[in-house]
């Protein structure tokens, strides 16, 4: 009799445990559909919580200054999409991007941010040699500009900032998607004044501002490396060429 009673107790306990487990699983599945709004998930403040505060600030600076540049040549219908960095210097506002990302005149070149288009006021400089474009714009209300006077390394700071294996990151629009934030590591600095990164980029990344982990603007993404193989020319999409911003002639702004 005692054995039967024990068996009944065991069965009841098993059923109770099964019911509780089922309720827990059901509750867990139900709560898995309860997620924050997309605007919260994509917030500029939604970054890795384990990062140091200084690096979080640097990431925010990168993400809040990133814009997309759309340029059209109406005569040939050539169209380009590139990335750029919103910045301020001499009390005015500009976007720095790559020259090869500008296919049309200023009137057909737009700055895209938050799904809205802003006008190009003027091309300050289209430098084909160094491959950069400096575009003047009106103040962009939902963006935070990089301050060239304080957010760029000076003098001997460059040697420390460009040391091999330093961590860096950029925010841009590869393949017209984004803004995406990508990290990387400095591999080398060439005598041709290029920074080589072990990172990732693709068409549309060109013009993205590259930042150090302490928030200094170091340069802009120029291109991917290309290698010759037995099968022809191959793109090395994890070797990224960056132009240091000291190659930009900021004084051209004062000249206009």
How does this structure look, described?
The protein folds into 2 domains: 65-146, Beta Barrel (Thrombin, subunit H); 150-247, Trypsin-like serine proteases (Thrombin, subunit H, Beta Barrel), CATH 2.40.10.10. The chain is 21% helix and 39% strand. The chain has helices spanning 2-32, 38-41, 53-65, 157-161; strands spanning 66-73, 78-89, 92-97, 109-113, 116-119, 122-127, 132-137, 146-147, 167-172, 180-189, 195-198, 209-212, 217-229, 232-244. The strands form 2 sheets. Strands 1, 2, 3, 4, 5, 6, 7 and 8 form an 8-stranded mixed beta sheet that branches. Strands 9-10-11-14-13-12 form a 6-stranded antiparallel β-barrel. Strand 10 (180-189) and strand 11 form a beta hairpin. The radius of gyration is 26 Å and the shape is globular. The mean pLDDT is 87.
Short characterization:
This protein is of the alpha+beta class and 256 residues long.
Characterize the biggest β-sheet.
Answer: 8 strands, mixed
- State the separation between the terminal residues, measured CA to CA: 102 Å
Number of domains: 2
Order of helices and strands: HHHEEEEEEEEHEEEEEE
Query: What general form does the structure show?
Result: globular
Helix content: 10-25%
Quick one: CATH superfamily of the largest domain?
A: Trypsin-like serine proteases
Known CATH architecture of the largest domain: Beta Barrel
Please report the first level of CATH classification, the CATH class of the largest domain.
Answer: Mainly Beta
Report the CATH topology name of the largest domain: Thrombin, subunit H
Going by helix content, strand content and strand pairing, the class is: alpha+beta
Q: pLDDT below 50 for ≥5 consecutive residues: which ranges?
A: none
Tally the helices: what do you get?
A: 4
Number of strands: 14
- The amount of beta strand, in percent, is 35-45%
